[in-house]
């Protein structure tokens, strides 16, 4: 009888210890990373995110499920649904479509976005104040749009007609264009929107914009970035200068931009992820964060091709 009681006691203690171990935080995390498309800006943001998370938590303590949707919304949805089925601890959604797909798939798993211009627009949140109140937060790649608009006037003082070239399917692009358009029109500039629906009509719409415009503005736009070579070939042949909304587009075919660091943006997102994973912050209470040090840069290659001299206060793009 005593032997049986000892055995039962041992089993009870073992069971309790196993339960405690199961309930405790082992420090092992599963993180799903969905990058919407493959181009430099998004690549840099993903790299910055991974670096920051690994530095804080240790490489052996995080399993990354990293996938690239190659600009395909259906593939993006499939990737996100796989993360949900794996019950990951956190989803990092790189670019607006990925954030939208993630939120449509789960309201429970924390979602951190990056390379998103305006969360209120992307998430359809009226009177957005900087905190979503839902399981989504992250970082914004929005640079001051009035400054970008003024750049067009500074670089091309004789321009009378400015084309606004962007993808109609991207709500954040429309937001940027609306702000830039209002600023330029207040200065007496004629602005015309040239909207492509996807990669299939980029060349046609860009040809029209280049033919009709003295200068072109291209916002932070995933489709434009993915089709950078197509746009570059057209605007350089037509000798039409472009002010870009972000660095990757500027490197490809832009004269200048007010540039943020997407790598730094990714790192900030990674630091936010660490707080969420450690239970140090509630995602619905986390304010959207920004790269607070944008830099005026110009593209020496494009300036030379168009016969333009860089303005004072700009540095050559890396």
Task: Describe the model.
This protein has 318 residues and is α/β, with parallel strands linked by helices. It folds into two domains: 140 residues, Rossmann fold; 137 residues, Response regulator (Rossmann fold), CATH 3.40.50.2300. Helix content is 47%, strand content 20%. The chain contains 13 helices and 13 strands. The strands form two sheets. The protein has a seven-stranded mixed beta sheet, sandwiched between helices. It has a six-stranded parallel beta sheet with strand order 2-1-3-4-5-11, with helices on both faces. Strand 1, helix 2 and strand 2 form a beta-alpha-beta unit. Helix 2 runs parallel beside helix 12, helix 3 crosses helix 4 and helix 6 packs across helix 7. The protein is elongated and about 60 Å long. The N and C termini lie far apart (79 Å). The N terminus is likely disordered.
Largest sheet: 7 strands, mixed
- The CATH topology label of the largest domain is Rossmann fold
Identify the CATH class of the largest domain: Alpha Beta
**Proportion of helical residues:** 40-55%
- Tell me the Rg in angstroms: 24 Å
